[in-house]
Write a structure and sequence with these properties.
alpha+beta
Length: 151
Amino acid sequence: MTVRAGGGQHGVMEVLDGLYRRWLFEVWNGDFGVTGQILAPDFTGHWPNLEVRGPAEAADQVRRSHEYFTGVRTSLDVGPVIDGSGGDGMVAAGWSFHGAYRGGIPGATAEPGTPVSFRGQDIFRARDGRFAEYWVVSDVMGMMTALGALG
């Protein structure tokens, strides 16, 4: 990672920690322009059943999530756990999403304003001081159950 100069592994870990916190607390709280600062131009994001390319598509995917909820808030539950050895680095973390249902999800019977929370995990691969690749797993089944869309 280019940020290693003078900082050693500790410097890499601080940079990766900062990148992740910007993703979770800035991008997910609505500052979508941050994606251009923290994601590589050739970024690839792997969501279940969806792959996005580049910072703009990643911002669009997060923006789509915001269309269904108001008062979006994220919390960091575990980590981030960072491996900055032998390369550019990997970051893993567990998070929670909180918001109030706005309406519009097909099959959902919950009233607008229904509070919703669910958990997930992120894994990022970093390259040259930015995130280059992303994998996410979240409790969509739990969210859809809370919204009355399942069972």
